[in-house]
Amino acid sequence: MKELLEYVVKSLVNNPENVRIEEAENGDEVVFSVYVDSGDMGRIIGKGGRIAKAVRALMKAASFKENKRVIVDIVD
């Protein structure tokens, strides 16, 4: 799942080399912390948070197969 998230985030930003994703697993819950360049923060969040919601929905659908709960945090 981390690879999918990394691919999507790197496709959205202007500086993909500055993307860093940390994964923390706690039982049936997985938390992904996404770090991007400060200039790309608006590109990953989108107007009204639409892109961030779409990324979270995509990860939720991907996690359904593994019976895990996924949380995607975008860290500034």
- If you average the pLDDT, what whole number results? 94
Number of strands: 3
Order of helices and strands: HEEHHE
Q: What's the N-to-C terminus distance? A: 22 Å
Over the alpha carbons, how many angstroms does the gyration radius reach? 12 Å
Q: Pairing-aware structural class of the strands and helices?
A: alpha+beta
Overall tally of structural domains: 1
Unreliable runs, pLDDT <50, ≥5 residues?
A: none
Number of helices: 3
The name of the CATH topology is GMP Synthetase, Chain A, domain 3
The CATH top-level class label: Alpha Beta
CATH architecture descriptor text: 2-Layer Sandwich
User: Largest sheet, described in full?
Assistant: 3 strands, mixed
- Walk across the major sheet and give the strand order: 1-2-3
Gross geometry: globular
Query: Beta-strand level of the residues, as a percent range?
Result: 25-35%
Q: Helicity, in percent?
A: 40-55%
For CATH, the homologous superfamily is named as K homology (KH) domain
